[in-house]
């Protein structure tokens, strides 16, 4: 039994997969370090579904979204947040953790506020360049604030900010190129272009990729993770083109097979691409459909020489094909920049910070 065998940690975060997958990535390292792990999320959020595979005690609390804009729910959600705070106090007294790790999302706010009242130390992790509202509300009482981007350090308290990167699921690096080709039915040795549209899909990206297939398939095999109910049934038998709605266990093999990747610019996704050394094109969500964090994430990766970026509003078949060809031709340059980066998986760094804070 390790020296931390009696340590207890509560993980919290939810509302989207991006607020959960880094917590999941930490689980094997925390277990190895001897931590007993608990999770607090919402009653029925995505975090509950994602965590259930990991045999960790899960507790749901009431949660409400804190909005900067008018919505009728603004009148009822504060009461839900207060209920979540009361439930968090009860749960934390029962669990009696040594420390809490918060990945953000609105479910985390009542948990860390309760931790502050009870004198339980907590660490916050911010994925995006600019902190989201939930993390802004959580930072004041945090012992340390971990982040992914050098630019974020200027926006955080200097005595708390640590540039760690994001935890990456260890299994993603253990894939097989050969297994990936078998899964997709690719029988020739053309390079592989992987397109990831996110868990809900990216309609503009999906459509543009499909329009471009006649120009792409002579050069590449294309594997396309297109999102729930976003498959194109008319293209199910196109040689060299394989679609998936969603990929779980096979993802490691598809990544191992991919030579270059086209992706949205969610912070966790692009940090995975960096850790796996995959030259990439980022097509960030525009400010019309997000708070602009993906555009900032993409700009940072472009400036660091890890990525090429296409503005979603300018995306068309010609730009996509030309940028893919440019990326593939210059892929060694992008690989060299990625290999020089100190931002790899943050798992070990974060476990070290947790250990230090509960000494």
From TrEMBL:
InterPro entries: GlcNAc_MurG (IPR006009), Glyco_trans_28_C (IPR007235), GlycoTrans_28_N (IPR004276). Residues 192-350 form the Glycosyl transferase family 28 C-terminal domain. Pathway: Cell wall biogenesis; peptidoglycan biosynthesis. It is an enzyme of class 2 (transferase). Residues 9-145 form the Glycosyltransferase family 28 N-terminal domain. GO terms for biological process: carbohydrate metabolic process; cell division; cell wall organization; peptidoglycan biosynthetic process; regulation of cell shape. It is found in: Cell membrane. GO terms for molecular function: UDP-N-acetyl-D-glucosamine:N-acetylmuramoyl-L-alanyl-D-glutamyl-meso-2,6-diaminopimelyl-D-alanyl-D-alanine-diphosphoundecaprenol 4-beta-N-acetylglucosaminlytransferase activity; undecaprenyldiphospho-muramoylpentapeptide beta-N-acetylglucosaminyltransferase activity. GO terms for cellular component: plasma membrane. Keywords: Cell cycle, Cell division, Cell membrane, Cell shape, Cell wall biogenesis/degradation, Glycosyltransferase, Membrane, Peptidoglycan synthesis, Transferase. This is UDP-N-acetylglucosamine--N-acetylmuramyl-(pentapeptide) pyrophosphoryl-undecaprenol N-acetylglucosamine transferase. It comes from Butyrivibrio proteoclasticus (strain ATCC 51982 / DSM 14932 / B316) (Clostridium proteoclasticum).
């Amino acid at each position: 039994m390790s020296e931390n065998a009696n340590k207890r940690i509560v993980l919290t975060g939810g509302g989207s997969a991006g607020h959960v997958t880094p917590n999941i990535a930490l689980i094997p390292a925390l277990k190895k370090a001897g931590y007993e792990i608990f999770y607090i999320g919402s009653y029925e959020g995505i975090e509950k579904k994602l965590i259930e595979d990991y045999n960790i005690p899960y507790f749901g609390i009431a949660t409400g979204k804190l909005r900067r804009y008018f919505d009728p729910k603004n009148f009822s959600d504060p009461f839900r947040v207060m209920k979540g705070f009361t439930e968090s106090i009860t749960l934390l007294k029962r669990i009696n953790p040594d420390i809490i790790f918060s990945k953000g999302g609105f479910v985390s706010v009542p948990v860390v506020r309760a931790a502050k009242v009870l004198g339980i130390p907590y660490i916050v992790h911010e994925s995006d360049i600019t902190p989201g509202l939930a993390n802004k509300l959580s930072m004041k009482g945090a012992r340390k604030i971990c982040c992914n981007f050098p630019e974020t350090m200027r926006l955080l308290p200097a005595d708390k900010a640590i540039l760690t990167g994001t935890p990456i699921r260890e299994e993603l690096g253990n894939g097989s190129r050969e297994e990936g080709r078998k899964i997709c039915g690719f029988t020739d040795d053309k390079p592989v272009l992987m397109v990831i549209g996110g868990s809900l899909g990216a309609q503009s990206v999906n459509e543009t990729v499909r329009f471009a297939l006649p120009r792409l398939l002579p050069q590449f095999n294309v594997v396309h993770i297109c999102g729930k109910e976003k498959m194109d049934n008319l293209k199910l038998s196109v040689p060299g083109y394989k679609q998936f709605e969603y990929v779980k266990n096979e993802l490691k093999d598809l990544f191992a097979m991919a030579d270059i990747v086209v992706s949205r610019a969610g912070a966790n996704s692009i940090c995975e691409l960096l850790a796996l050394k995959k030259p990439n094109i980022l097509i960030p969500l525009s400010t019309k459909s997000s708070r602009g964090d993906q555009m900032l994430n993409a700009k940072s990766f472009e400036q660091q020489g890890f990525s090429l970026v296409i503005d979603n509003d300018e995306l068309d078949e010609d730009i996509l094909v030309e940028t893919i060809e440019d990326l593939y031709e210059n892929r060694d340059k992008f690989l060299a920049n990625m290999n020089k980066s100190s931002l790899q998986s943050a798992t070990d760094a974060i476990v070290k910070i947790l250990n230090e804070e509960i000494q």
